[in-house]
Amino acid sequence: MSDSQTVSTAVAKLYDTYPFPPEPLLDEPPPGYNWRWNWLAAYNFCTLQKPQKQDIRILDAGCGTGVGTEYLVHLNPTATVVGIDISAGALSVAKERCQRSGANSVEFHQLSLYDVEQLPGEFDLINCVGVLHHLSDPIRGIKALAKKLAPGGIMHIFVYGELGRWEIQLMQKAIALLQGEQRGDYRDGVFVGRTIFASLPQNNRIVKREKERWSMENQRDECFADMYVHPQEIDYNIETLFALIDASELDFVGFSNPAFWQLQRLLDKAPELIERSEKLSDRQRYRLIELLDPEVTHYEFFLSRPPLPKADWSADNTVLAAIPDRNPCIDGFPNQCVFNYDYQIVNLSVAELEFLRHCEGKLTVAEILTSVELGLEGVRSLLRQQLILLTPGE
Questions:
Q1: pTM of the entire structure?
Q2: Which domain does 193 fall in, by range?
Q3: pLDDT (tens digit, 9 = 90+) per residue, 5-36?
Q4: Distance of CA 175 to CAs 25, 105, 199, 282, Å?
Q5: Residues 154 and 272 occupy one common structural domain
Q6: Do both 239 and 262 map to the same domain?
Q7: Final residue belonging to a domain, choices 304, 327, 350
Q8: Residues paired with 339 in a beta bridge
Q9: How many CB atoms are located within 10 Å of the residue 307 CB?
């Protein structure tokens, strides 16, 4: 058996033992939304415009128990969704989850990421969350996925970061040492890990980190096992992350948590250093940020296969001719106080609220502004906040 097969077998055994994620199954659609899984919101984030089509194909690569898959189906009602995973146990839960909540436009396959070429056709959106870092050869995995991404398609990826997971790495190694020949018995690994935590002094660094960051979710053995007794994990920093991205031969669109990657939040009191940083490349600036704020537990980002058109709304006449829609990932509308696509509170002015009421994908910006006293700068503000999606005018 090859190294990759050995790792795949071990990973499948873990998730057969502890299906993950362990979220409860519901007899209704899941609550809320994750904008990264909504085609309209994600495409707008990447291109600054509404996509031309919605009858797309979506791949959930490494779907586990189907938590993300279920959202992908409900948030994209005209899409066809495919979920793959190597664990039969996890897939069994995923199928039941989607069946119970009415997420019917999905098909599942027990398949490794390495073998994704066995699926027919290409995909407009590929979601790969928490998977690549558990492969023995992540570069081979991301290359396989890249071949299935359609031209103009986008891929959302989530992988672990080494700086913010340092204490987790130490605990993983400690558990493995104490397990010895029993390593691979994941229930024993959970027992060993929980016994360590119960025995260590309360001021121990690993214990303090667990309590402040992870203890709530790790009450469930499935989460504890996934974090501390996983048989395969590769954690990244900015330099190794971009080596992975470069290997995909796809374009890096950007991090899907861009606020974290703003140097101003760290060095706002040192404008001379901000000025120096302008001489750095984007990657060097990202590296600087994570070195100064080593809380990076993960990286989440979008890649694309060209051509991916990006809109330019700098010209007033272009904005006026565009047709606006409300971002589908807004909670609380039509109140003046709403949650935006990223669940941040936004307080709308009366004029902004009135403008949003007219954003039904029918009238142009110019037509709406004839009856709403907002102005172009107000419209651009809504656009910057991603409260509206614009379709270029004819």
A1: 0.96
A2: 166-228
A3: 999 999 999 999 999 999 999 999 999 999 99
A4: 31, 41, 13, 38
A5: yes
A6: yes
A7: 304
A8: 331, 345
A9: 9
